[in-house]
Here is the input.
Amino acid sequence: MKILFSNPPWFAGDREGIRAGSRWPHTRPRSSGGYYPYPFYLGYATSYLRAKGYDAVMRDSILLREDNESYYAYIKQNKFDYIFIETGSPCWDHDRELIHKLLSEHKVVLVGPHATVFAESLFDAEPYFAVIKGEYEKNALKVVEMGAIISPLGIAEIQRAASEHVRAPGEYRTAPGRIGSQHW
Here is the structure.
């Protein structure tokens, strides 16, 4: 099972976006260079899942200055089963378009500040595999573990496990009929 923790590209005209790792997602002139904050939560989650034996990688497309086409090519080449995307409110319109192209072939999980604040409306708007509120490394593991054991006979077991073990801070909700019912 291959898992991607992603800080996707965010470029608009002559501006580049700064998202994961920044308290204040924003854009700045592309030529400004300078400081790129490390996406700590993406790094924590990647390390946590790797420590649990999963093939997880983190990709910081902002630091790589990667465009959307290169980002999609990387995802297609690596055939990820899960894509965790950290998003923020200032970049949501851009991210939504990018994410929409991934939904038909991947289990997309939204994380980060925007997912935390608008979890219910996001979850109801698109067929995301899951939306995680708050810090997400441990709940990322829960989503992957429960998604890996899906079967018609396993749904009740998954719902029971989720209701017993997933609590704030960092709650998640998964798609009905996929790996359980809502958990917030």
Strands lie at 2-7, 11-12, 15-18, 26-29, 55-60, 82-86, 107-111, 130-132, 172-174. The mean pLDDT is 78. Residues 2-136 form a domain with the Rossmann fold fold (CATH 3.40.50). The helical segments are 40-51, 61-64, 68-78, 92-100, 113-117, 119-125, 137-148, 155-165.
